[in-house]
Design goal:
Number of strands: 0
Distance between the termini: 41 Å
Bound molecules: heme C
Radius of gyration: 15 Å
Largest sheet: none
Number of helices: 5
Structural class: mainly alpha
Oligomer: single chain
Shape: globular
Strand content: under 5%
Length: 128
């Protein structure tokens, strides 16, 4: 099986968003990330088994509610995300250690483990 690097833990996005992402990997955020059919199905079932709906984490529920029935595949496009990051100065996201708002890990050190608790958030004054 090919190695696919996930920047977002499965438990932050609802089932529907994962289905949308996996059905359009040719256009995955500008990269061609397409896989053979079998691998794609394996990954999709893993993602669905661990999607936000299966999580007890508060952030998972917040993302589900914020996405609702909209076709959103990027966490940073949700109202919940915008609300939680609105106090962060825009130039912080342009810092060379961050580069993009999609680089969640720059600030949430343990995000790939699904952890976005306050104690795992870096001090953003380092990026100013
Ligand atoms: C520039 C650093 C930075 C980046 C990049 C960033 N965040 Fe955050 N995030 C923060 C900070 C700081 C807070 C805490 C805001 C507060 O409590 O006022 C936060 C809060 C959150 C929260 C709320 C946590 C809670 O317990 O209420 C979630 C969820 C979250 N971020 C997810 C993400 C995701 C997903 C991404 C990537 C798409 C991301 N963040 C990118 C800095 C960042």
């Amino acid at each position: 099986m090919q190695v696919v690097i996930l920047f977002i833990p499965p438990n932050l996005l609802p089932k529907k968003s994962w289905e949308l992402i996996m059905s359009d990997l040719e256009n995955h955020f500008g990269d061609d990330a397409s896989l053979d059919e079998e691998t794609n199905q394996d990954i999709l079932s893993f993602l669905i088994k661990n999607s936000a709906e299966t999580s007890t984490m508060e952030a998972s529920w917040n993302f589900i509610n914020s996405i609702g029935n909209k076709d959103i595949i990027a966490l940073s496009k949700t109202e919940y995300w915008e609300k939680r990051h609105k106090d962060i100065p825009k130039n912080v996201f342009k810092n060379e250690k961050i580069k993009s708002i999609a680089n969640c890990k720059a600030c949430h050190s343990d995000i790939e483990k699904g952890l976005i608790e306050d104690e795992n958030i870096k001090d953003i004054s380092d990026f100013m």
